[in-house]
Amino acid sequence: MEHQTIVDALLLGLLEGLTEFIPVSSTGHILLAGHFLGFKSTGKAFEVLIQLGAILAILSVYAARLLRLAADLPSSPRARRFVLGILIAFLPAAVIGALAHEFIKTVLFETPMLICIMLILGGIVLLWLDRWALQPKYHDVMDFPLKIYLGIGLIQCLAMIPGTSRSGSTIVGGLLLGADKRSAAEFSFFLAMPTMAGAFGYDLFKNRGILSAADLPVIAVGFIAAFVMAVIVVRYLLDYVSRHGYALFGWWRLIVGGVGLIALLIWG
């Protein structure tokens, strides 16, 4: 049974790394897969804590740029304004996530039918946006107006509903507010760093009393798998969406949501 749990953790970790930074909802995929695998984690902590692997993946890929940004802060108003923009975008999710934590974990995370419906709705939105000839105004994440950072941060709050997708909501928000396809995805990467780190830290704190040493091997396997897969995705995603857009991910969501919905109706 323990071996099967480790195998499940490996599969779920790979799934987390694959889906975290593309607009298909990593949490939705993991919760659905865990539901059908019969995988149960203590306090639903595994699903959040393995995101640390994805956080470290994006930090490693963006390390040089982050160091350059930090070095520029004392002398560059543009760099300071960008960091302020990230903080402004992060705050709405931080406040709502803390206030609604128990409801999200005990109700929304336990509703596979809702996840499937949100996957399908999100897929329709992505396909619609990809075919709509939007005229982007902004091509560099460091040059968005502050109101755009705030707007993306507010739209990110929709991702509290599993199946919506954090990256999906921020990318859609960026596109609707005037960003081009590449910069919308790239800002989603930058915003992921404080958002996911905050969710990780808060969930670890909330579950500190119920996690045990027995949970650590499963979480560690999921973390490592998520890290490796996320590094691969982050390295290639921006070039892909610049050339091909988001239609693939729209169809991906429709298929996974539709199959999941049928499976739930048949097997429960």
Automatic annotation (TrEMBL):
Enzyme class: hydrolase
GO annotation terms (biological process): cell wall organization; peptidoglycan biosynthetic process; regulation of cell shape; response to antibiotic
Top-rank lineage group of the source organism: Bacteria
Native source species: Neomesorhizobium albiziae
Note: Bacitracin is thought to be involved in the inhibition of peptidoglycan synthesis by sequestering undecaprenyl diphosphate, thereby reducing the pool of lipid carrier available.
NCBIfam families per record: PRK00281.1-2, PRK00281.1-4, undec_PP_bacA
Gene Ontology cellular component annotations, sorted alphabetically: plasma membrane
Record's catalysed reaction(s): di-trans,octa-cis-undecaprenyl diphosphate + H2O = di-trans,octa-cis-undecaprenyl phosphate + phosphate + H(+)
Transmembrane segments: 48-70, 82-100, 112-134, 146-164, 184-205, 217-238, 250-267
UniProt keyword annotations, A-Z: Antibiotic resistance, Cell membrane, Cell shape, Cell wall biogenesis/degradation, Hydrolase, Membrane, Peptidoglycan synthesis, Transmembrane, Transmembrane helix
Main location: membrane
Membrane-topology annotation of the record: Multi-pass membrane protein
EC number(s) per entry: 3.6.1.27
InterPro entries (UniProt xref): UppP (IPR003824)
GO molecular-function terms, A-Z: undecaprenyl-diphosphatase activity
Family classification: Belongs to the UppP family.
Subcellular location(s) of the protein: Cell membrane
Chain's role: Catalyzes the dephosphorylation of undecaprenyl diphosphate (UPP). Confers resistance to bacitracin.
Protein name: Undecaprenyl-diphosphatase
